[in-house]
Amino acid sequence: MDQGTFYEICGWVASISLILGYLPQAIQTIRTRNTDGIALPTFLMMAVGGICFMLQGILHKPEVLWALFITNFVTTACSIVIFAIKIYNDYIKKK
Fold first, then answer.
1. Structural contact between residues 35 and 79, judged by C-beta atoms closer than 8 angstroms
2. Residue, of 51 and 93, whose pLDDT is higher
3. C-alpha closest to that of 54 among 73, 37, 31, 40
4. Quick check: 44 and 90 in contact, CB under 8 A?
5. Torsion of CA 48, 59, 7, 53, to 10 degrees
6. What is the number of alpha carbons within 13 Å of residue 50 lying toward its C-beta?
7. How many C-beta atoms surround the C-beta of residue 6 within 10 A?
8. Cα-flanking dihedrals φ and ψ of residue 62, to 5°?
9. How many CB atoms are located within 10 Å of the residue 83 CB?
10. What is the 3-state secondary structure (H, E, C) of the chain?
11. What is the pLDDT of residues 28-51, one digit of tens each?
C-alpha cells in the first residue's frame, strides 16, 4: 500500500468515526430539545471551526479532501441546529 492510499484510508476512517461519535449526541439533543448542559460558545466555535475545515477541504489543491469536507459538513450542520435550539431555549422561550 502506498502512502497516498494509506492517507486516504486514514482520512475516511477518521471521518466515519467522528460522525458516528458526534451524531448520537446531536440527535438526542435535537429530539429532546434539552440544552441545559450545553455551553453556547462551544457550539458557536464548533460551527465556525467546521466551516473553516470545510473550506480547507474544498479549496485544497490539487484535489478536494472529501473526507475532511463531509465530516465537517455533517458536524457543522448539527452544531448550527443545536446552537439555534440553545438560543431558542435560553433567550426566546424564557421571555
1. no
2. 51
3. 73
4. no
5. 0
6. 21
7. 10
8. -90, -10
9. 19
10. CCHHHHHHHHHHHHHHHHHHHHHHHHHHHHHHCCCCCCCHHHHHHHHHHHHHHHHHHHHCCCCCCHHHHHHHHHHHHHHHHHHHHHHHHHHHCCC
11. 999 999 999 889 898 889 899 999
